[in-house]
Amino acid sequence: MKVNVHAVNFTVDRKLVGYVQQRLDKLDKYYDRVVCSDVFFKVDNTGDKANKIAELKINVPGDEFIVKKQCKTFEEAVVLAADSMERLLMKRKQKVGAKS
């Protein structure tokens, strides 16, 4: 699966990009018709320590899923977003399978 990583107002480390690619490759187990995915990293300018935002956008034929999580680290936000996306993709697969 092709993963595009975008960072708003900062540069992303290669380790983080590799981690995101590795984590999102696991989504192919749940739904194999994923076209592409985009990951947006943002830093919220609040005094809160949990100010790292990861937004995960996945395109599948005929639909698009978006999950947004905010945590203390980008890695933690990616894990939570990917877990939510797994549930969405499993629901999608069951829905498409029921129609067939």
Automatic annotation (TrEMBL):
Gene3D superfamilies referenced in this protein's UniProt entry, alphabetically: Ribosome hibernation promotion factor-like
Pfam families: Ribosomal_S30AE (PF02482)
Source domain of life: Bacteria
Cross-referenced InterPro entries: RHF-like (IPR036567), RHF/RaiA (IPR003489)
NCBIfam families documented for this protein: yfiA (TIGR00741)
Protein name: Ribosomal subunit interface protein
Source species taxonomy: Bacteria, Pseudomonadati, Bacteroidota, Flavobacteriia, Flavobacteriales
Gene: raiA
